[in-house]
Amino acid sequence: MSNIAYRAELETDLNSHDEHSPHPLDAANITDSSTPFVRETKGFTSVISPKPPSTSKLSSIGWYTPAVIVGGFIGAMVIAIANYVYFYVIGGGDGRPIDEVGISQATNSFLILVFSRAFSTILTVSASSAFAQLLWWYLRRRSLPLEKVEALFQLNFGPLNLYQLGILKLVPLLWFFGLLLLLVPLSASLPGGALVVEQVARSATNAASIPALNVDFRGNGSAADFFKYAMFSTMPDGDYKMPILEYSAIGKRSLLEGAYLTRTSPCGVNCSYDLQFAAPSLQCKDANPVSTAKLYFNTDLNDTYAQNGFYRASHYPHNPNFKRVNDLYEFVMIWAESDGQRQNATLRALNCVAMAATYNAHVNYTNSIQTITVGITNEKPLNATALFYRSLFYGEQHAKDGPNGIEYIYPTYTHSKDELNALFHGCQLLSMAETLTEPLKGDAVYLGTDGYNRSSSLIQETPLTRAAYDEQTKDYTYMDYNLSPDILRDLMTNVSLSIFNDGQHLTSTSVTTETYRLSYVFKSPWRLIAVYAVDLIVTAIFLLLGSIAMFQNGVAATPGGFLQILCTTTHEHGTLNQLARQACSGGKEGMPERLMKLKVRFGEVVDMNEDSRFAAFGTEEETSLLVNERALSPLKRQQHD
To answer: Which one, of 223, 548, 265, 143, lies nearest residue 396 by Cα?
Structure first.
């Protein structure tokens, strides 16, 4: 000891080090025994000259740890990109059916798990290595209680020590680094939810034969087929009579339901197609009921009886001359609007003209439920004058079937081919119109003395009727009708669509079918990108700090390495080793309180017994700040020397 001289002097700004503000220069490179040994304590610098010979082997960073840090980050980034590409390939755009992809759901779940685990594992390994560099950077510069040192070492592998808020106050950067090591594996499981499995509609368009309405179809053109495909019946002398029962029933059902009658899908559960067909429409307007009211009231009632009631709906007689008004087929409805009192009745009237029209229908089936969107064009009034001629089809009733179709017997009752086609077309549309107008005609009477009487009009059973029923009198006290030009037009449209749905004439058209197939869908790309980007960016910041710490330390630290702990606890005569020998083999319960509270740091130790110096853990008094001379600037290195 006599050959060692001590000199104490005030610490200069250059070599000033506070335990809360560590000097950026660190890590010893102890290679020259002639270099004065610098021991730093709080506020003073002690110089021991000459230094004892160093027993430490020349340390270096090497390539392995930087490769782990950089390579792990790059590997995680590659996995994130590969995960995105995989999701995009099997589920990009509108998705791809599982059977086309060829990857089962079980295999896909396994691959998603592989991506998640591989990303989190590789990135955590990289971050863990950087954490070790930063931890040892602090251990070289801060005297920390041994229990805190223990907790910091465990942060790398066991996040349970995050509950120790003392670490957050003491070294917040390492605490947040430990939190990152916990959150990366958890967040890495989120990108898998960006790929979902769901039923996706796939469309295909092909030509198909669809049953439709063709009012002009007359079979083989013979007289027999003329009446076979007619929607109307005729009188014995060939006059137009009325719709056949099949179609009048369709009109009544549509009127009672207040909607068109649907049909089962001819093309599958989910499909659609467009068809065009000829059918009647109504052009309606409000009319003045005063001048015409007498004509349309039921003439079977005498005037006196009629004056004691009011008539809810009108009818028109079968007289053909009555229907021919300026070559128009007119339908007039007259009814009384009131608040339920006879004396407050107000007559209203609607005048409608039957039109020959073209219907453009878009038919759609969704889960076998039909909806029709229709546009009505080319509306022209029906020629009622021609359709109500006497003995209109008398010649066809008595004709024979010839090689060219109809062979007439009576020359007086003949039609050219074009005339017959036009008359057949007009009567078909007329019969469709009368499937609506015939059920509506008649009278609905509310008599003041006898109460409500059921009438000949079907309107009272339709959704158009607004009625109030008195439970005490067991009778209706109020009855009115929801009628307007648009409502009557819609009723005719519903009847036409109902008959269209009953059509059996096959026609070829383009049918778009939709089949729902179980598919992979890359539904939330932002979810995958956001999670991976946040993980990589935040980790990159900590990796940069760890890399800087590693180069300042001058040596690469190994996370959790036993040899590293062994080589840094070699101060045999130090306080740390003496207290450690008093403890048991492990566990917090066997650790002396004094050992747990002992403040240690990793620095340069001088062992006077062996006349040597080396890097090891020790108390602040037993260690000096390790200085990595290669990290010093030339000026600082000269001043240090």
So the answer is: 223
